[in-house]
Design goal:
The complex is a heterodimer of chains A (about 400) and B (about 375). Chain A has about 400 residues and is α/β, with parallel strands linked by helices. Chain A is built from 13 helices and 15 strands. Chain B has about 375 residues and is of the alpha/beta class. In chain B, strand 2 and strand 3 form a beta hairpin. The chains are: A alpha/beta (about 400), B alpha/beta (about 375). Chains A and B meet through helix 4, helix 6, strand 6, helix 7 and helix 8 of A and strand 4, helix 4, helix 5, strand 5 and helix 6 of B.
Amino acid sequence: MVSTRRRVVITGLGPVSSVGIGIAQFSASIRDGKCGTKPVESFDATGFLRKAGGEVSDFRPGDILRRLVPDAAPWGRSALFVASAARLAADDAGLDLNGSRAAVVMGTTSGETPAIVAMVERWRRDGWGSPDRWTAAQVPASKLGLAAAQELGTKGEVITLGAACAAGNYALGYAYDLLSLGAADIAVAGGADSVDRFTHAGFHRTGALAADVCRPFDAERDGVVPGEGGAALILEELDHALARGARIYAELLGYAMTCDGKSPVAPDAESIARCIRTAHHRAGVTPDQVDYICAHGTGTRLNDSVEAEAVRAVFGQKPPPMSAIKSMLGHAMGAAAGFGGIACAVSISAGFLPPTLNHRITDPDLTGLDVVPNHSREEKVRIAQNNGFGFGGNNAVVILGSVR
Amino acid sequence: MTAIVITGMASLDPGPATTPAELPLRVHRVEPFDPEAMFGRRVARFKHRSTLLAMAACDAALVDAGLKVTDDNRDAIGITMGTTTGSVSGITEFGMSSFDAARPFVVNAGRFPNMGLNAAAAAAAIHLRAKGANTTVVGGPLAGVGALRHAEITLRAEHADMMLAGASEEVSGPAVWWAGSVRATAAAGEGAAVFVLERRESAEAAGRTPIARLGATAVRAVDPADATELAEAVSQTLAAAGIDPAAVGLVAVRATGVAAVDRAQRTALEGLFTAPLLWSEDDMGDCYSAHSALQMARVIAHVTRQDAAGAAAGGPGQSGTAERAGLVVAVDPDGAVGVAVVATAHDDAVVPATTELSIKELIHE
C-alpha cells in the first residue's frame, strides 16, 4: 500500500439499468429484489431457443441528456447509455462539470455491437460494399468516453477501456489511480454495453445462456441472461468533496488487476484469488474486515463455482455474504462491474445487502456461501468488495469502505 | 517523480500501397507476415489479423528489451493494447451465420472471444503467459497514445513492474469497407507497434538499458477544430515532461481527413515548434488504431539517433535547447487529442511531482 496517496470518495451515482434509471429507482429495485429480465425485444430473436435478456426497454436518452442530442449525431446505443449515466451521476453529485478538467473513464466489453450487427446484416444481404454511413459512424467504441465527456462538457482526460465483462472495474480502478496520483480531482467512471444478436448467439452456442432467469450459485443454475445499460460513478478527491460539502456514499480504498494468461473463456480460481488478495493488500484491509462481496456471479455453472473456490481460498470456509445482482439486472457486460460498484456504494451508505434473486437451493458443492437469497437484508456494511471477471482472463477487484 | 523508461520496442510496419485481388482498394499491408509459422496453425486460424499482428509485435519487443517472461516475473508483466472496435473482421466472421433464421445460434464458438474488444491483449497474455494487469484502450486514432498513457499510470501506481504497451490495426475486407465509409483519409494501412515500459530504477536494477524516457502522456477531450485547445494540450504535456519546445526534434501527426481539424492541428503545432512535422500517410497510409503507435516507434528511433549524435559531440544533449525529445500527436475528429512525449534515455529533466501540479502552474502563469 502506497501511503502518500490522496484519498478518493464516491459522491454521485448514475445507473441506467433494466431495473431502474437513476439512483433512487435503482436502489429501490435492488433492495426490493426486482427482476429486470424478460424476452428480448431489441433484435428479432426468432429461432433462438433461449430468449431472455435484461434490456433497458424504457430508455429515452432525450429525457436525460442536456448537451448531447441523440439523433443529431451518430451516437450508438452504448454511447447514449454511458452519456445518460454520466449525466445522472453528475446531477446526483450536485456537480456542473462543464469546462472542468474532470476525467472521464468508461469501460466496455464490445462497444457498439448493434451498429456492427447492422453493418454485417447488410453485407450478408447485399454483398460487400460501403456500409451505411450513419451506422458505420456509430461503430468506434472510443465514442463511449467521448459521449460522456461531451454530455458533461468536460475538457479533461478521456479514455475508454476494454476488459471484457470486468471493464467497469478497470474503469473505476484507472479513475481511482488518476485521482490518487494527483492527475485529476474528479473523475466520472463506469461503463456500458448493449444487448445484441451476436453476443446472444455466442452465449447460446457455448451453452452459457439461461433458459428463463439467472440463478447465480443455485444448484440448478443454467447460465447468464445477457443484459445492457450504462453505469457511472463520480469519484472525487476527499478534500475536494469535503470542501464543497458533498454527500459521500463511500470511499474507494483500492483495487487490483490480474490476468489469467491461460484460457480465452474459462476463469481461473488461482488468478482470481491473487486478484482479491492484491486488492485487499492495496486497499489496506484484511479478509475478516470485508462485510459484503458483490459477486461477479454470472449464473453459469463454471463461473460461479470458480468464483466460490477463489473466494474460499482467500476467506476460508465461511466467507462474508456474497450476492449476485446479475440475478436482477442480467449481465450488463461492460456496465456490469459499474452496477456492482454502485450496489456496493449503496450497501455501505444505506446499510443493506442486495439479494441474489431467483434462488432456490444453494449449490451444495459451494459450501459455506451466504448468497443473501431472494430478499435483501438490513446490515451495516463497512467494507465491500466488488468482483469483476471477464473473457480473456481479465480480472479486477475493487474495494470500497465507509469513510472514516 | 519516478521516470518511466522504454527498454524495448518493435513495430510491424506496412509496406507500400498495393491493390490485392480480393479488395477493390489500395491498401498498405504488412508483408510478408506468416502467423502460422510464428504461432502455429490453430492460433493463426482462430485469431483475427489485428490480434496476430499485436502478438508478433509483443514477441519482438520483448526480444528487443532482452526480457523473458518467466515464473519469477510473469505476475508483474502487464499488457495494454490499443484498438478501436476490436476487429471488424473478427466480429463479422463470428456473427454472419447468426442471421440464419432457422438456427441463429449456430455460430463458431471458438471465435466467440473475437467479439470482445480485448481480444488482442488477452491473446498476447495467453501466448506469453503474462499475468499482470491486462487492459485494452479503445481509442480510435488515439489508441497507441492511450495505451502508453494507461501503461504509464499503471506503472506509477505500481500495479505492474513492466508493461507491454502498443496498438494494432488490420487490413481486411470488412475493416477496409468500414473505414472507407467513415474516414476520408489516406489508403487503409495496418501494422502493430509495442513498447516495453518500466520504472527507471527497476529497469536499471534488472540491467536493462533504456532506449528512451517516456516524458509524459495525455488523452484529453477537446474541440478538435480549436487550435488553441490543441496547442494547450500539447504544451501542457510537454511541460509535464519537463521538455522545452525548442528541444523537440520531431513531431509526428496524423491527417484526420476533416479539413477544419487538420487546419487546427497544423496551426497549433507550427505555432509551438520549429521542428518538422512527420506526416506518415505517404509511406504507411492511415493505420488508424495503430497509427500513433507506429509513429511513436519512428519518433523514438529519431530521438535515439539525436542521443547518439549528442554523445558523439561530447555528451548526451541535456542542455535546454539541444534537441533531445520528440512527440506524437493524435487527434480524433470525434473530440479528443492524444499527446505522448519521449526524450533521450539520458534525459534527466526535473519532472514536476505530479502532472496536475504542472498543469496548475501553467494555468496560473
